[in-house]
Amino acid sequence: MKVKRQLHTNGNVVGYTFKCPGCGYHHTPWTEAFEDQSVWGFNGDVDAPTFTPSILFRTGNSQGPVVCHSFVTDGKIQFLSDCTHNLAGKTVELPEID
Ligand SMILES: [Zn+2]
Fold it and tell me: Cα(35)–Cα(72) distance, rounded to whole angstroms?
């Protein structure tokens, strides 16, 4: 599988985590509202996931700001041109996750 279920303390599945081959962080699109999270659509397929809409991740590290902006469709991740990493503008397979 390419995404890992995230469970709320009540046992409900609230999101899915994948390992990002672009920025190296893990991203978790939330699929069920809790607290004030945005909610993504998910096709229910952990081997060929699709999330809608795009996933925008921002953080910072010792080299400066990190932006990772992607579409995940049918198990592939398309990085948009505003990404700060070297897969910007490219589409690659999502890696398997334990
Ligand atoms: Zn990323």
Answer: 24
